[in-house]
Amino acid sequence: MRLDNTRTSGTIRTRRGLALLIASGAGLGALLLGTVPAQANDTTKVVSADGQSVTFAASDSSRGVSGSVSFVVNADGNWSITGTGHNSHLLVRTFHWTCDLTWDAATVTHATGDKAVPGKKTRTISSAAYDPNIQADFADIADHGRADCDIVIG
């Protein structure tokens, strides 16, 4: 037989325990599933002297992986992304870079493939291709285009 000196009924104890369990589960779930926002710095934009390319540069960090990126778009429609990732953890992390290029009402998104970076190491990743939308609207991109580049972990 259990000794009970709380002066509460079993039903009340059960409800309190259930409420505590639900609150703890909700808090833990939010902690585990919640995403930590990336700490992105402002993107710089440089148009080349001949006006044939635009370079967007930025740095970002997320979940212990940080780095810098250069996103280049050319008048001929070719683009390239070259970025680094430094893993401050001891275990291997996988990362890639995603860049959203916007101008007027248009948006295109380009990304690198995934790359594993061992703990306490830095790796470089790059990707390049052709995009007809960039070629068609290059003058607008050079004039008022914006890029937002983010490091993505996992």
Largest sheet: 5 strands, antiparallel
- The parts where pLDDT drops under 50 for at least 5 residues are 28-40
Strand order of the largest sheet: 1-2-3-4-8
Q: Specify Rg, calculated over alpha carbons.
A: 24 Å
Count the E strands.
Answer: 9
- Principal-axis shape: elongated
Percent of sequence in beta strands: over 45%
In short:
By secondary structure, the protein is of the alpha+beta class.
What does this entry look like structurally?
The chain is an alpha+beta fold. 23% of the residues lie in helices and 46% in strands. The strands form two sheets. The protein has a five-stranded antiparallel β-sheet with strand order 1-2-3-4-8. A hairpin with a 2-residue loop joins β2 (53-62) and β3. It is elongated.
Q: Helix and strand layout, with pairings?
A:
Elements: H1 10-33, E1 44-47, E2 53-62, E3 65-74, E4 78-87, E5 93-103, E6 106-111, E7 115-117, E8 122-130, H2 132-136, H3 138-144, E9 146-153
Main traits of this protein?
3 helices; five-stranded antiparallel beta sheet; alpha+beta; 154 residues; 9 strands; 23% helix; elongated
